[in-house]
């Protein structure tokens, strides 16, 4: 029978999402042998708070990025902006799953969503898996794009086109949807200790091996490709420290390089701790080295904290764009001024419909609007 250890009765909000429920013959046996529990307290309070903060920040930030970058015309836009919009879209879709997990965490991991509970369980887990894979895939593509732009500029002029970038993004979405299928298939609402929990079935060695393989393929391999790309870029720039033929274009490439590198560093820093803990736990299970009490407290506590850090990545990128990308700030300012101009024009039309623009009643309104532009 699938049940969880006492560790999960205390602390399961993020822990249960990432499928680390323990298979035991009898929960009471775990309690009777004096197994240590999690050191983290009040997870039913701080986890929902963290989730909702990430949710509201992520919704506002990613919509802001999509609107600002999407408002650029083809002449002022950059090829990397297509990846930026897709990254923001992936994060936006992901953060809409967080209220479900926040509600569950506030109820000690009870998944009480009625008849739609199992569908929401599978769907939210699937979306999170797709988000993780699509994020690292888009970042890998951005790194390869920077490599082609700096190291293979002339040889890649036919590859680095808007059409090729769109095809690449479509391929990333399709592959991410495929890689997320295991999270849909193996996720179900399971009765645990008198409540319903959204868990994955880890009783199969095949699924454990698949999860470990997915970690290697969707994190370790992409990070390795990213390191190779940027290592080659650094060596190339150090070797060819000469005056650029087109200083403006060279400065633009270097600026995009720094922005992409900042996004990648933020992603790796956010997801690396979680993947380390996940690999340790999966490897221990496959090697049958897991103690009878299940996952040790230091692993479970570390996993909870690392999950919060990983989820936080969904609202970090907008801040990076705003503070480090002057092209993004300039476009945001232009969009703001455009909206102000539209507002003034609307007021002028309203005034002209009601009365003459030269009247005393209408001029103060227009003067105040013009001062704010």
UniProtKB/TrEMBL annotation:
Q: How does it sit in the membrane?
A: Multi-pass membrane protein
Question: PANTHER family in the record, alphabetically?
Answer: CELL ADHESION MOLECULE, G PROTEIN-COUPLED RECEPTOR 25
GO MF annotation terms: C-C chemokine binding; C-C chemokine receptor activity
The signal peptide annotation in the UniProt record is: none
Pfam families xrefs: 7tm_1 (PF00001)
Chief localization class?
A: membrane
Q: Which family does it belong to?
A: Belongs to the G-protein coupled receptor 1 family.
Q: Which GO terms describe its biological process?
A: calcium-mediated signaling; cell chemotaxis; immune response; positive regulation of cytosolic calcium ion concentration
Source organism per UniProt: Cynoglossus semilaevis
Q: Which PROSITE patterns match?
A: G_PROTEIN_RECEP_F1_1 (PS00237), G_PROTEIN_RECEP_F1_2 (PS50262)
- Annotated protein name in UniProt: G protein-coupled receptor 25
Q: Where is the G-protein coupled receptors family 1 profile domain?
A: 61-321
Keyword terms of this UniProt record? G-protein coupled receptor, Membrane, Receptor, Transducer, Transmembrane, Transmembrane helix
A cellular component annotation (GO) from this entry: external side of plasma membrane
Span-the-membrane segments of this chain are 49-71, 83-103, 123-144, 165-186, 206-238, 259-282, 302-324
